[in-house]
Specification:
five-stranded antiparallel β-sheet, alpha+beta, about 260 residues, Lysozyme, 9 helices, SH3 type barrels, disordered N terminus, globular
Length: about 260
């Protein structure tokens, strides 16, 4: 085969190269982070083919995530590519071909109201150093926080807005082009995902109904109030939060969020 023909085939070859999974029970997720829902699980030694790679949540020092031909993302830490660098082209986005919209201030204010604020570093019930509105620090000094500690409430909200990024990405990733949301409706769903986790929200009837093209206002008002239970008990704090999210979603705004324009 001529060199020119080989070069023409190179992108195709790279995009379909097979690599071995290095550990057992490796989760492949809907986006490039552990907050995204699990779409399938790979066994140790299984071959996976990669379509593209993208930066994401750091796993054991590795920031790169690999998108497989199964349409999901796995940390490059678990894939035997032979390098920590790119072996195929970059993906168009993290869990989506477009960037997730940033939440508005009303959403930040809503989440901060229910998360509670601590200006100084403390140890949460799971043993993690924490500060602000529930920010989990990377170490006991919270050196990953770019704002001075003790935190002001204003900087606490700035840090919270940074922490909301993964939830914004997962709401964007799990909704299709049929879903039309303004920033307040979007913010209500980001708050819901921030509270309940992206794994829980992804398989919900709320997301399924939105992706089927149902009216967002109707779906949010009917579905969010169902998410008020913990260990089989209705929790007053969750009732208040869901009511606040529905109220935000029903607040009129002309600012559009989804679908995003690439």
């Amino acid at each position: 085969m001529k060199l020119s023909a080989l070069l023409a085939l190179a992108p195709f070859i790279a995009a379909t190269s097979a690599y071995l999974i290095k550990a057992d029970n490796v989760n492949c997720r809907s986006g490039s982070g552990t907050n995204y829902g699990v779409k399938r699980t790979y066994k140790k030694g299984q071959d996976v083919k990669l379509t593209c790679q993208t930066p994401g949540e750091v796993i054991n020092g590795v920031k790169l995530w690999d998108k497989t031909t199964d349409g999901c993302y796995v940390s490059d830490y678990y894939v035997k590519t032979g390098t920590d660098g790119y072996v195929v082209g970059k993906c168009g986005g993290t869990g989506s071909s477009c960037s997730a919209p940033k939440s508005n201030q009303a959403t930040v204010d809503l989440i901060s109201e229910f998360e509670g604020f601590r200006a100084n570093i403390y140890i949460d019930p799971t043993g993690h150093p924490t500060v602000g509105y529930g920010h989990l620090c990377s170490n006991s000094q919270c050196s990953d926080v770019k704002y001075p500690i003790p935190l002001s409430k204003a900087n606490g909200k700035n840090l919270l807005a940074d922490d909301m990024g993964p939830k914004e990405k997962c709401i964007t990733s799990m909704t299709n082009s049929k879903v039309t949301l303004n920033l307040n409706q979007y913010g209500a769903l980001v708050s819901w995902a921030f509270n309940m986790g992206c794994g829980a929200t992804q398989g919900s009837s709320l997301i399924k109904r939105l992706n089927n093209g149902e009216n967002a206002g109707t779906v949010i008002a009917q579905e969010l109030p169902k998410w008020v239970y913990g260990n089989g008990q209705k929790l007053p704090g969750l009732v208040r939060r869901r009511n606040a999210e529905v109220k935000l979603a029903q607040t009129t705004t002309s600012a559009k969020a989804l679908p995003v324009k690439c």
